[in-house]
Amino acid sequence: MQTATAIRTRLPAAAIPATAPALSQGGTRRILAKGAELFAEGDASTFFFRVVSGTVRTVKLLADGRRQIDAFHVAGDMFGLDRGASYRLTAEAVEPATVIAYRRSDFASLMQRDSAVMETLMAATLANLDRAHEHMVLLGRKTAMERMASFLLDLASRLSCPDQVCLPMQRHDIADHLGLTIETVSRTLSQMIQAKLIRLADGGRTICLLNKDALQLLAA
Amino acid sequence: MQTATAIRTRLPAAAIPATAPALSQGGTRRILAKGAELFAEGDASTFFFRVVSGTVRTVKLLADGRRQIDAFHVAGDMFGLDRGASYRLTAEAVEPATVIAYRRSDFASLMQRDSAVMETLMAATLANLDRAHEHMVLLGRKTAMERMASFLLDLASRLSCPDQVCLPMQRHDIADHLGLTIETVSRTLSQMIQAKLIRLADGGRTICLLNKDALQLLAA
DNA sequence: CGCTCATTTGAAAGGCCTCAAAGCTGGTGG
DNA sequence: CCACCAGCTTTGAGGCCTTTCAAATGAGCG
Question: Which of B81, B126, B184 should we substitute to test contact with A (largest number of A Cβ atoms within 10 Å)?
């Protein structure tokens, strides 16, 4: 593993710190290689997951190949809790990642005795729903520049790197998350550089936020 | 109340029929006038709601007035269950509506004894999350025509009117839901009429789906 | 019946996409 | 250790879909 990845994964910001311990008993650890698929849309949903390190993307595909990445999940995030008996989206590792898999059936009985478990899952699901709401505003109503600014600030806060974002994903993933093309993503970043809002490092994989206040204004 | 509204609200399609009865004990009924605000983003979230009849929209606003309607809630749907102590979006009646308000604090203790209640809320939340995922694909990756087709088919299925959609909302709401402008919504509908996919009735408030198969293909 | 608001339609502009090619990066093998 | 290769990223030019601005038409209501 090269240095860049080590840096990217060194800060596991616990997204659900207060309630997550309720799940500490069960679950099995899984190591994922870059690009590995955890589950696909339509698969029987026997597990749900929590990210320990690395990044996982959840994806929806249209018949003609168009892709929408609904979220990037980082350390502490939960995903794979879907309605019904099968997954509604596909999950893949964006970079080498470690997750903990919880068997759904194990919790059916556990939840009846321990409401704390259920509340943990509820909190995680509500967190995902909240992010989805925010992302719908971005996709439906923001310009390319606003989307990019929102994305960078969001990622910076979630990775708890105050002024620096080590992007675990490539431009194509960013584009499919923000509802843009890779060219527009690249052009938008170039404009931000020109405006001295950001600076690229590590061959374009790391973005230094030079002016967070201005980015915040841009994020609309 | 005019006839159109009566028709629109006469079919309460139970979205969560199996589990909803668990909530039948509590809650107080509220009658909402058209446009009435149930709660606003940032308000303390003391209640969550279930639609009995009519339609409620949940909305997010940007500082400059741009609006994104994340969902239209019809009979049987639940909304207002947000992360944290305050609502993350605003809820307003699209048309005259009846909802049942459940006090959040009443359920904190109830859930510990009755896991069925918690499961009902979880199922409702997962349903909302699922819709959000589907809508993100629409907003991020579909064309105006595809968005409109998807919207009409979705509404038709949820209102359980096989081949007819009685729109409770006006063009402006549709536009803010689909990430378009009212002009584009209108033009897209006109194109669909020309292609004999739909037919307008009731002064543009009712849409007859003349060719659902073709619409399904268009929805992508 | 007239007023107001919603919807439709038109024309022009703009932002993002598509197509295309050059520039970089990182990994591999000589 | 360095050159080469494949894939990712950036940049350029042109086109298209949606938006913006504007005005006409239609519907609901006092």
Answer: B126
Are A70 and B141 a contacting pair at CB < 8 A?
no
**Taking CA atoms, what residue in A is nearest to B110?**
A115
Q: Which nucleotide is nearest to A181 (CA to C1')?
A: C17
Token pair belonging to B160: 């359980």
* Sequential DSSP letters for chain B: --HHHHHHTS----SSTTTGGGGSSS-EEEEE-TT-EEE-TTSB--EEEEEEES-EEEEEE-TTS-EEEEEEE-TT-EE---SSSB-SSEEEESSSEEEEEEEHHHHHHHHHH-HHHHHHHHHHHHHHHHHHHHHHHHHHH--HHHHHHHHHHHHHHHTT-TTEEE--S-HHHHHHHHTS-HHHHHHHHHHHHHTTSEEEEGGGTEEEES-HHHHHHHT-
CA A132, CA A120: separation in Å to the nearest integer?
18
Global confidence as pTM = 0.89
Rounded CA-CA distance B74/B77 in Å is: 6
Q: Which of residues 98-157 of A touch B (CB under 8 A)?
A: 111-112, 115, 118-119, 121-123, 125-130, 132-137, 139-142
Secondary structure (DSSP) of A193-216: HHTTSEEEEGGGTEEEES-HHHHH
Contact indicator for B171, B178 with CB cutoff of 8 Å: no
Instruction: Encode chain B (220 residues) as per-residue pLDDT tens digits.
Output: 333 333 333 333 334 443 445 566 678 999 999 999 999 999 999 999 999 999 999 999 999 999 999 999 999 999 999 999 999 999 999 999 999 999 998 887 777 677 788 889 999 999 999 999 999 999 999 999 999 999 999 999 999 888 999 999 999 999 999 999 999 999 999 999 999 999 999 988 999 999 999 999 999 9
Strand D positions closer than 7 A to protein CB: 8-13, 17-22, 26-29
Q: Indicate yes or no: CB of A136 within 8 angstroms of CB of B136.
A: yes
Q: Chain B interface, mutation test: which of A59, A104, A134, A137, most B Cβ atoms within 10 Å? A: A137
Contact flag, residue B160 CB and nucleic strand D, below 7 A: no
B68 CB contact with strand D at below 7 Å:
no
Q: Residue A136 phi/psi, 5° resolution?
A: -65, -35
Residue in B66, B68, B83 closest to A136 by CB: B68
